[in-house]
Amino acid sequence: MTRAAGELGITQQAVSRRISRLESQLGRTLVARGTRSSGLTNDGAAVLTIARPVLAAATEMEVALGELFAAPDILSVAASLTVADHFLPRWIHAFVNNGNDARLLRTRSTNTREVIRLVSDSSVDVGFVEGDEPPRGLAYTRLATDELAVYVSPDHPWAIPGHVSPWTLAHTPLVTREEGSGCRAVLRSALLQRGVNNAELAAPALELTSNTAVLESAAANVAPAVISTRAATPFVRSGALTQVRVDHTPLHRQLGMIWKQGDKPSTHAARELLRAASMSQRQIRGNVHGQLSQH
After folding, report:
1. Is 293 within a domain?
2. Same-domain pairing of 129 and 255
C-alpha cells in the first residue's frame, strides 16, 4: 500500500480508504491486512486479473484523447519570392496529396537574406532560399535548380544582337531586386568568377521589392533586368521582353530548404514538407528525362 500511495501521489491512509470502499461495494475482502505487511486475498487476485485489461484500455484511451485534442503541429515557413511564386505551391500540393493538412502551414515570402535571418532567429521553423552555397550555421537540403537570364525591352540596344559580354553587363546599371535577394547574389558571384572586379559592378538603376515590378520596369525600358526565367516567361511570351544571353556565363542557382539543426527538421510537419518538395522535384526531373528520351 505504501508503494501504491507513492505512485499515485496520495497518502497510505487514502489508499486504504479506497480499498475499503471497493470491498464494501463487492461484499468481499480483497486485501489481508497485517501489522507488518498486507497481501491480496484470492478474491483480490481475481479482481486484479479482471481489472488489468480495463486499466490498460483506460490508459490507451487517455493517450488517444490527448493526441486527438492536442494543439495542431503548426509549421511556420519563410520562402524567397521565386520559391514562393513558382515552387512552393506545387510542393504544398504534394504535401496535401501525402495526407497532410495545408492548414498546418503558415507561410510568408521575402528575400533570401531575410529568410536566413528568420530561421536563424527561430522566428520561423523552416525556410526556402536561393543561392550558390548553403547558409553557414544552418542545416540545408538542395531541392531544385533555377536559371536566371538577362531580359530587356525589344527596343533596347541589346535586343538585336541577343547577347552581351559579362563585362558589359557588369558595367550597366540594372533594374534589380533589393540587396539581400538571391538574384543579386548569384549575378555578382557569376560575374566575379568571370574575372570582373567587385569595384567594376555598376550600382543598380532601380531597386524594387518584387519580381513583377522588376519585370514591368525592364519591359518599360527603364534598364535591363536579371531574373528567374520562370518569372519572366509570361513577359517573353507576350513579347514585352526579350531574353539576352551572357557570353560564356551560366546563371544558375540552387534552391533549398533550411532549418536550424539536425540531419532532418525536428517536427513531423517540417519533415513531411521536405519529403513532399523532394518527391515533387524528382517527379519533374523524371518527366523531363522521359521527354528527352523520346526525342
Report:
1. no
2. yes
The cell numbers describing 11, all together, are 497518502
CB 210 within 8 A of CB 178: no
Can you spell out the DSSP letters for 197-228? -GGGSPPPSEEESSHHHHHHHHHTTSS-EEEE
**How many independent structural domains does the chain possess?**
2
Cα(275)–Cα(282) distance, integer angstroms: 11
Residue with cell 525589344: 154
What number of other Cβ atoms are within 10 A of residue 218's Cβ? 29
- Domain co-membership, 25 together with 157: no
Same domain? For 88 and 61 the reply is no
Q: In angstroms, what CA-CA distances link 187 with 116, 160, 190? A: 19, 22, 5
pLDDT tens per residue, range 2-44: 887 788 788 888 888 898 998 899 999 998 988 777 889 999 8
In this structure, are 54 and 199 located in the same domain?
no
Q: Contact 82/130 with Cβ under 8 angstroms? A: yes
Q: Measuring CA to CA, how many Å separate 60 from each of 54, 65, 70?
A: 10, 9, 15
Q: What is the Cα–Cα distance from 112 to 115, expressed in whole angstroms? A: 5
User: DSSP states of 85-97 as a string?
Assistant: HHTHHHHHHHHHH
Query: Contact at 8 Å (CB) between 36 and 27?
Result: no
Mark whether 101 and 161 lie in a shared domain. yes
DSSP state of 38: E
Based on the fold, state whether residues 32 and 87 are members of the same structural domain: no
Q: What is the spatial distance between Cα 227 and Cα 85, in angstroms, rounded to a whole number?
A: 13
Rg (CA), the chain: 32
Which of helix, strand or coil describes residue 69? coil
How confident is the model over 131-182, as pLDDT tens digits? Answer: 877 888 999 999 999 999 999 999 999 999 999 999 999 999 999 999 888 8
What is the domain range of residue 62? 2-68
Q: What is the pTM of this model?
A: 0.70
